[in-house]
Amino acid sequence: MYPSTLTQLARANPFSAPLFSLQKVEEPQQSHHTQRPRRLAAAATDDVSCEFGSSKYYALCGFGGILSCGLTHTAVVPLDLVKCRLQVDPDKFKSIGNGFRVTIREDGIRGLAKGWAPTFIGYSMQGLCKFGFYEVFKIFYSDLLGEENTYLWRTSLYLAASASAEFFADIALAPMEAVKVRVQTQPGYANTLRQAVPKMFAEEGLWAFYKGVVPLWMRQIPYTMMKFACFERTVELLYKYVVPKPRSECSKAEQLVVTFCAGYIAGVFCAIVSHPADSVVSVLNKERGSTAVQVLKKLGPKGVWKGLVARIIMIGTLTALQWFIYDSVKVYFRLPRPPPPDMPESLKKKLGLTE
Predict the structure, then answer these.
(1) So which residues are the signal peptide here (predicted)?
(2) Can you tell me the distance from the alpha carbon of 161 to that of 314, in angstroms, rounded to the nearest whole number?
(3) Total-model pTM
(4) C-alpha–C-alpha distance, residues 147 and 144, integer Å
């Protein structure tokens, strides 16, 4: 039997580093022309339309991100509108049901679609950067770490790659997010994207569109880190403990069902960790001249959690649909879809897990 610490490592605690150093094992010398070491996300062996990590692969992943984020966020605009109004005016909008009733009474059914244009544009750009850059950074960091460390530190890799991607994604999202919140939460200010943009620029200049980028980072980076890391590890666990057969034996449809389930589980955690910052963003974009610290003090410990139930429903569904659409795009375009990572053979030898 090998030591207990090695047993723990083999089980791959996702949130901690290895607690010991591996002993060097002599490996037979290889030719310079041998294949590159397999990355964490090595391409699947079935028929694919492009090489894993190629420009075409990144471009189509970005396109999948546009569809997954742009379409899903636009589809839940009515719920998002009510959620934002619960956050910025809790005295008037007391619950989800009450929020819908008051909105329909004041603005009619069409009022529930307020902000759909900036939502679609903003979250399409965010999806392009979020999913596209995630693939870029995941492969980049994996190459830096090497095959064995990539496996041992894979959760840290997911967290780092998703945080890096979201940093750029939020810069792309910030202008349209500011417009969306202003249209949805400030009655009489503007009803459309075309009305809001010139008015905001005339009042506050370019700053009007980017003053919420830091709170966006506060909200979206933890959200995205949870979204990707939790999803990746949940997929591993579902195939290991829930799905009754190996992934290689599952049909594409069955694999997409696993994707949807893992996405919903990840979405619930995403909503919880990012909700306080979401409340700050909503109020900040409504009130001119306020800072994130001032808004946080004004809301207080209880105020930042207003609208959480609506956001859990919205984000859980959103995240599940986003992963489902994104994975479906990969299936449609026959992109490489790597299975959950396995321990490299060289690491198994060092741990004494093979003869």
Answers:
(1) none
(2) 25
(3) 0.76
(4) 9
